[in-house]
Amino acid sequence: MDNSDLLERQVGAWGVPLGAARLDLLSAYAEMLATYDRANVIGTKDLDRIWADHIIDSLSCLLFEPLAGDLRLADVGSGGGLPGIPVKIAKPDLRTTLIESTGKKSRFLDHVAASLSLKGLTVVNARVEELAHSPDHRAAYDVTTTRAVAHLAVVVEYCVPLLKVGGHAIAMKAAIKDAELAEGGRAAEMLGARISRRIPVPFVPEIGARERQLVIVEKLSETHPRYPRKPGTPTKSPLGAR
Asked: What kind and span of H or E run contains 72?
């Protein structure tokens, strides 16, 4: 089974048909990740791993069913564009902003957006702790996504200030300990939000056994203007810690 067949089998099992045009775009993106030589954007050039560990994994965000239509999405700490670019390709109506603080990675994201002619995709080279205080971005998004960014309490402080009231943060997680979940829940409360659900991610046998879940955080009220705190502080002193 080749990689595109594997992807079709997996997303079909999730109830998310893609079609040939979107599969072609995902294939082109995978090739860019494997061949880009100006920066190490994801830590591997192995095409099989890129498909299974990164692109297919990113598309698990689509298990959160409200992630569709003309919504505004921010992918926080986008890195090589994961999960933001696969999600944008699968759901082209999403107005997507990729937030990445590292210049080399941001330039790669610009390269992908231009090469694949992804309309409605914006790349912002900035620290999210600063960007979330900008009127153009604060309380401006319906959905945020994060993948392998930080502990849950830190992710919550990064993402909730970007969300509109009623919006949702999707935190992609592998195993998560009760202590991290509890700390994230306390942080969410401080920011006017709550952990609303956890969605387990099932994989087809060809992918193999993996522990993956989506932790969904719902914003209930406006976030105090002091948050997020200055760059570096959320990781050094997470909200909700005891």
From this structure: strand 72-76
